[in-house]
Each structure stands twice: as C-alpha cells, then as structure tokens.
Amino acid sequence: MKRLMTTLAAGAALLATPAAADELRDSLGEKMPALMELYKDLHANPELSFEEVRTAAKLAELMRDEGFEVTEQVGRTGVVSVMRNGDGPVVMLRADMDGLPVVEQTGLPFASTQTATPASGVTTGVMHACGHDTHMAAFIGAARLLAERKDEWSGTLVMILQPAEELGLGALAMLEDGLYTRFPEPDYAIAFHDAAQFPAGMIGYSPGYALANVDSVDITVPGIGGHGAYPHTTKDPIVLASAIVMKLQTLVSRESSPLDPAVITVGSFHAGAKHNIISDEAKLQLTVRSYSDESRKLLLDGIARIARGEAIAAGMPEDRMPTVTVEDPYTPSTYNSPDYTETVMAGFRDRFGEDRVMQVPSVMGGEDFSQFLRNGDDDMKSLIFWVGGVPQDQYDAAQESGEGLPSLHSPFWAPDAEKVIATASEALAAETLRLMAK
Asked: Which residues are listed as membrane-spanning (predicted)?
C-alpha cells in the first residue's frame, strides 16, 4: 500500500506537466469547452435506470451530427451508433447513462435537483453519483475525435450508450435485443469508469479479473411461532437464522481458497414485530461476491447447504426447510483480456507518461460491461480501465489528514470532471486509432 501511495503522489505531481502534447490532444483541447457544457447539462438532468429517455435522445442526436448511423431504443433506452469505414476490425466503445436515487449534496452550481420514484415506490432525488455523466461526455469527445479522422483508420466503429448499469441489467437487455445480430459484433470492447480513490487524470487497470460476480440471495427461514415466555413450544426462526448467518462466514474463511477472494455479506435480517412474540418466519438478504465461476458455484451451493443443514440441526420438519432464492440474471465478473490489456497500457504510458498509468488491485464491485465479453466470440478482447477523478487538492488533503474521500455513490462525489473527460476521451480515441490504423 505504501508503494501504491508513493506512485500516486508521483503521478499526481506529473499531472501538471503531462506527456508531450500531440495533434490529437490539441484537437481535443478545442472541443473541451463544449464537452464541459454537455457534462454540466447531463449532471443537472440525471435519469434513473431504464428511464434515460432525455439523455438517450440528446446523445443520439449528437452522434448523428458526427455522421454515425444511429439506432435508438435498443434494450429499451439504449443507443447504438455505427460508423462503417472500410475493411478492418470492429471496435466497440461503451458508456453507461443511468443515474442513482441519491439526493445530491455536492454544492455544485449545476447540481441535480431532479426527483423520481424508483421501483421502491419512495420518491427520491436523482444524481449522477457514479460519474456516468463523465463517461457520456468522454464518449462524445472520443466520437468527435474519431469522426474527424476517418482518413486515419479503417474498420467499423460501434459506439453504444447503455442503460441500467446500476441495476446490472442494461447490457443484457441490449444483447437480448439483438446487439450482436442487428449490428456488427465487436472484435474489441472498450470502456472506462471514473475512480474515487486516486487523483484526477490518472489511469488504473487490472489485467484478468477486474470486478466481481455479483449475486443477490434471499433466504426465507420458516419457524414455528409462539409466546416469548414459552420458547420450548416453538421453533425460533431468529435463532435459526442467526446460526445460518454465523455459519455462512465459514464458506469464505474455511472453504474458499485464501488466494481466491470471496465475500458474503448479510445486508438485511428481518423477523418479528413485538417483544414477547416468537415469529414464524425470518428473512435474510445477502450479497455474494466472487471472481471465478467455480468460486461462485462453491459459495451459492454452500449457502443452500448451510441453510438446510442448520434447519435440520434445529429440528425443523422437512416441510419447513428454508428456501434460498438466487436473483436471476446476476452480474458476471468483469474480465480484462490480460495480454491485450498490457498492450493498451504500454501505449497509454507512452502517451500520458509512465507515472500516470498504474496497475491497481481488482475490486469486489460489479459492472455489467462483463456481459459483452461473455456473449461475444472466443477471440473477442475486452478492457475496462479506471480514470481517476479525485480533485488534486482533496486528494492531497486526505493524504495529509488521513481522512476518507467521498466514494462512488456518495451524495458528495464531485469528480474533477475536466480531467476525467479529457483523459478518457483521448485514451479511448487513441486506442481505437491504434487498433484500426490504416
């Protein structure tokens, strides 16, 4: 960790004197004022998952202006833009569009005041608390750079605006709506995500597994209710569910390999309604994280086994066994093609400078960008990388004080959008030009 912090500090200092500017960067500089206005508009007008109607329409029109063939309402609110430019590889760039049910507290002059009512039925504020507004602005920046350089590349460019990443459902919705049959199937799929753990403008990457499988699991634990003063006449589901909660931790500590990360978190435990009544049911809600398919199976099979085993040990009759429900579809782990990733990052080091590009640990968060590789050909290459978003002064202050920084999904997350958008636009365009160079 100390080595990582040293690298971050060195990289942060280098941001003030980036690698030598070239024509691509100069061209992007001319476009940045318009991109920042677009970012502010997107930030002020976020929309929830599968409700990105205004956002999709606005960006679709901008893509048409650049000469793309644009199809809207792919996977409900998704947008697919295609530019055919002779023979060559098919390269797909992706940005996600949805905001979150979060009341913004950044104090920005263009802060969101939007409200909406999600599936929970509770009206809430809406905010781009995960930085998808920077993703979309950089996506448009890359599109403009590539559209004006058609004489420099050959192949087919597919640029997709994906809905509902926050639900883990948008990528699959687009695939099920014919993304790979109605439109050219990619040889390469590339995306980025802003990062809340290192300085704005730095690039982070993880070869191989980068983000986790995400499973949501519900366990309903039946009991036999009764009076709290006479527990011997009951089968207490709270005691049984508590035993299940504790035993579940052994799946990670004693059944999973220490070299294969795994997480089981019980996020919700509901039972009972009164002091002196033993309820007849308890409900648990779990999030389960893993990387490999084998690890995922071990955890899910183990959860079902433990729930049943603890119920048997508690003397529950066969017709009162717990039920375990795994939400389907789930978000698969995101895998960066290792050799391809290293090749891309070598190019980024040449372009941005050695100390602005660093390998970072994989995380247990989820990203449904994973679906594009899972559903592609065996030869397809895929990469999602991070672009740091923490304003430099905030990062320096946090390093000095030891205090934490606002995370993604925080109502206080306000990235240095200009550095995120400039870095990501250039990176996406430069790598696409490399892959499709004449």
From this structure: none
- Nearest CA to 352 out of 407, 298, 425, 412 is that of 425
213-326: CATH class: alpha beta
Report the interhelical angle of 132-147 vs 53-65 (nearest 10°).
20
Residue 28 to residue 237: CA distance in whole angstroms: 61
Closest C-alpha among 363, 391, 315 to residue 210 = 363
Q: How far apart are CA 359 and CA 287, in angstroms?
A: 27
At the topology level, CATH places domain 2-211+333-435 in Aminopeptidase (3.40.630)
Question: Which strand (E) or helix (H) includes residue 158?
Answer: strand 155-162
Q: Could you give the count of Cα atoms lying within 13 Å of 401 in the half-sphere of its Cβ? A: 9
Distances (CA, A) of 284 to 131, 182, 271, 322, 342: 31, 41, 9, 11, 42
Dihedral sign (CA 38, 43, 49, 51): negative
- pLDDT at res. 21: 52
User: What are the residue ranges of CATH 3.30.70.360 in the chain?
Assistant: 213-326
Pick the catalytic residue from 165, 236, 367, 368: 165
Name the pairing type of β-strands 213-222 and 323-326: antiparallel
Active site residue 431: no
- Residue pair 186/372 in contact (Cβ under 8 Å)? The answer is yes
What gap in Å lies between CA 401 and CA 49, rounded to an integer? 37
Q: Which of 52, 96, 98, 431 is catalytic?
A: 98
Residue of 142, 165, 36 lying closest to 92 (CA atoms): 142
Domain with CATH 3.40.630.10 in the chain: 2-211+333-435
Q: How far apart are CA 190 and CA 182, in angstroms?
A: 20
Q: Is 165 a catalytic residue?
A: yes
pLDDT per residue as tens digits for the range 98-153: 999 999 999 999 999 999 998 889 999 999 999 999 999 999 999 999 999 999 99
Summarised one tens digit per residue, pLDDT across range 236-256 is 999 999 999 999 999 999 999
Q: What pLDDT score was predicted for residue 120?
A: 85
Distance CA 230, CA 27 (A): 78
